[in-house]
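User: My instructor asked us to take a sequence, write out its structure as tokens, and then describe one feature of it. I'm not sure where to start. Here is the sequence I was given:
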Amino acid sequence: MKFLRNLIATAALLTVSMNTYADVKDSKFYDPYSKYQGKTVSSENWKPTKNYSDKKQSGNFKVFDSLANCYSYFYHMTNKAFVLEPTTNTLLTIKRGFYDLAKYTSYTGDNTKNNIFLRKSTDNGVTWDSPIKIYDNRIENLNEGRYPSLFGFIYDNELAVSYTVSRVDEKGSKWYGFFTGFWNSEYQPTHLANNKVNSSKFGTLDWSTDSRILASKTGSSSFYELAIGRLSPSSDADVENANHIALRKTIELSDFTSSIPEQWESNKFKTVEAGYRSNNIVDLKDGLDNKIYFCVFGNFNDPAVNRNRFGVSVSNDEGNTWTEFNIMPWAVVNNYLSSKGIPQDSAAFLYDSKGFVPLNNGDFSIASRLMAWYNTDSTVSNFVEIYYNGTTQQWSIRDLSEFSGSYIVYQDVTNDAGQRLNPGDFELQLSRTIDGKYLVAKWVDLIDFDKVASTFTTTDVFMATRPVDGTKWSKATNITSSTEIDRGVMMADLVPNDLTNIPLLKLESISANDATDQEKRDNQFKAGIDQVLMIGHANIITSINEEEPCDCTLLQIQRIAPNPIDMGSDCSLTLFMPSKGYADLTIYDVSGKVVNELKDLDREYNEKQNSVTIPTKGLNIGTYYLNIVGAGQNVTKMLTIIK
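Assistant: Let's start with the prediction itself. The structure tokens for your sequence are:
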């Protein structure tokens, strides 16, 4: 794969915190290369070429909820508002309500922007249970909730959810740390507030607004919640304490204990000028080896290297103790650049979304953007995977995908002269299949970007995959392929093993009924507009062919799309036959009753791949099973019919 084409830097933007509250203690990440980020857009510098509703795989995006705005739903994909609990196969999302009482003055219900709700789905996002109110701002004295993260797990043989939410007083323009909660079907939501960290060693420090949370899995000796976050000193001038990272933990919902592990203290990172910090949380996740992995991006305190890099700290005892950061050597980057014919020390990882997945045996992978510049007026840019082999203890970098190299900076709807970085990047995420056999990357990219004219057609969602035991990423699949502006698209931390029907949440701004298609698109660039929350599904299995050729002795249903299927529509099936021969196709309902014998499709099929159209007319909304008998084998795939 070639390193991406040249891209002229189009904007000089500081990576500031997006918070609007005047005295928030959330230092800016120090990134000397931030001028290479972002592109301000308006209706004048993009050119539609297709119909507004022209969709490819994701024609099944359906609205299932709404919210006041996306600010507290995610930011640079850093908090985790969308997860999968694999034991019960339950999708979970946590969100604010919809109604802003300052705007909707006559509303008297619970669905307000300062209350927090839990949504869950047990059929891969096709249908969702009614919202569960887990925080009521008018009853509990814990301020307004923002930036929620959650984690699903099993406790007492029941689905349980742990969550952590930033607290803000909008009228007083102050942040107050977090409240952290626990929910399951037998308990009312229980909240513990955590405002500051009082350290005898470092004094009193304020929690920042970003956080991750984990909880005990089945088999743990006791139930615990573990959340992690950055700290800020009371004074910006206190640069020595600007880089602490801390954790807070509760066991059986006892009072929190907050601590700064020695391995995460501020002195592990270089000090920078007042008001800035030199680290940024990437993610906190469980590995397949039952260890907890924490990944941070920052400028580590190494006199020989002055570059932002990645480091990973590991806990073997449920977060009680941690290892020193395992820091990526900068020589790994220089070796990668040399392999591309690019001068060493001419690249940087920039401050935008990143993905992190810990695997087994100490292995982990990180997805990030690497940008290089080696002349006065141009840069080159690419998505890469930084990975670590726990057995050989070696760091490496490989190509993940090419991309346009620029992204959208959204406008504040109340002040079009201002700019907010929310969401302001590629929305890069990295997940794995439940069984840990594949990695999946997702991002949003500008389409038909013209660096000279500073125009682009639209944004689309792309995904790529890699077998964990393989060496190459698949060719990126354009999941949406339309003139709609795709943004605020979230992938869960775990995805289906067969890489089909991968659920994606997507935000879309609500426009007036009489808005033109152009106005609808423009509204996707503006912050602060009411939004709907949508669910769609993507299939990317057909892109995996470089590392794992199919087992040519097996009858296989390789792909069904779309699935879920709109009632009355047809779907496309890719059937793999190990040899030329007859196959019998039948659709059953969940009770095992035959509902469509598909006699017209009972015929001889060619060896290898066959494309088959499956009619679903006459089937009501619900779950069905497509069964295929051929080559002496029998395979079944689930079909879901929706409105």
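For the description part of your assignment, you could build on this observation: The chain has two domains: 6-543, 556-642. Try explaining in your own words what that tells you about the chain.
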